[in-house]
Design brief:
Rossmann fold; 8 strands; about 40% helix; six-stranded mixed beta sheet; two-stranded antiparallel ribbon; about 15% strand
C-alpha cells in the first residue's frame, strides 16, 4: 500500500514573493483571509516525477482549498475522490497589533514559533492541528486499505503533521517537510 502527500502548486498569491514586505501583525489577518481562498498561478510547471507518482495512485484526495483542488486537477483531471476540510492549511495565529512593522517573513517565523509553544490567538492551536492530522492520517490509511494507493494534495505544515502520524501508524517514508511547491512525501506499508 502507498500514500503520497503532495504539497500544492504555486498559488496566485505567492507569499514567498512578499517575504520582505513590511507589515504589522494586524495585516496578517487580511493576508490569511485572502490566502485561504486563492487558486493557482499560471503557468505551472509540474515536475515529471510528480506526474509519474500521481499516475501510480488509484485515488486522489485534496483539502477543500482552491489551490489544493486546482493542483490536483492539473495532475488527475476531474478524478478527485474527495475534498475534505480536515486537510486544510493550519491557520496562522496573530495578534491584532498595528505596530510594530516587520517583514512578513519575520512575523511568520516568529508567530509559528510561538504557535508551537501554544499561542493560538485568531488561529488554530497546535493541538487542533495534530488532532486533524490524526483523523486525516487514519482516513488516508482507510483509503489506502480500500484502494491500495492514494495521493493527497495538501499543504506544507499539514503534510508535516500527517507524516508524523503515518510514521506512528507504522508507515515508512521520508522525513521531508514539503517546504516547496510540488514537494512530496511517499509512504509505504508492507
Amino acid at each position: 500500500m502507498k500514500i503520497v502527500l503532495l504539497r500544492h502548486g504555486r498559488p496566485e498569491m505567492d507569499l514567498n514573493e512578499r517575504q520582505n514586505e513590511k507589515i504589522s501583525a494586524f495585516d496578517i489577518k487580511r493576508i490569511v483571509e485572502d490566502y485561504r481562498w486563492v487558486g493557482l498561478a499560471e503557468p505551472q510547471t509540474i515536475p515529471p516525477e510528480v506526474k509519474l507518482l500521481a499516475s501510480q495512485c488509484n485515488i486522489c484526495v485534496t483539502s477543500d482549498f482552491a489551490r489544493s483542488i486546482e493542483s490536483a486537477q492539473l495532475i488527475v483531471g476531474d478524478n478527485i475522490y474527495k475534498s475534505d476540510s480536515i486537510y486544510r492549511e493550519a491557520e496562522m495565529p496573530h495578534p491584532l497589533w498595528h505596530w510594530p512593522k516587520f517583514s512578513m517573513k519575520y512575523w511568520f517565523y516568529l508567530l509559528r514559533c510561538f504557535w508551537y509553544f501554544g499561542y493560538q490567538q485568531n488561529g488554530e492551536s497546535v493541538t487542533e492541528v495534530k488532532q486533524n492530522a490524526r483523523i486525516g492520517a487514519q482516513q488516508l490509511v482507510e483509503f489506502a486499505e480500500k484502494h491500495h494507493s492514494v495521493l493527497l494534495v495538501g499543504h506544507g505544515i499539514n503534510i508535516h503533521f500527517l507524516s508524523k502520524e503515518l510514521r506512528a501508524l507504522g508507515w515508512f517514508g521520508a522525513n521531508n517537510c514539503a517546504t516547496n511547491y510540488w514537494d512530496y512525501n511517499q509512504f509505504v506499508l508492507e
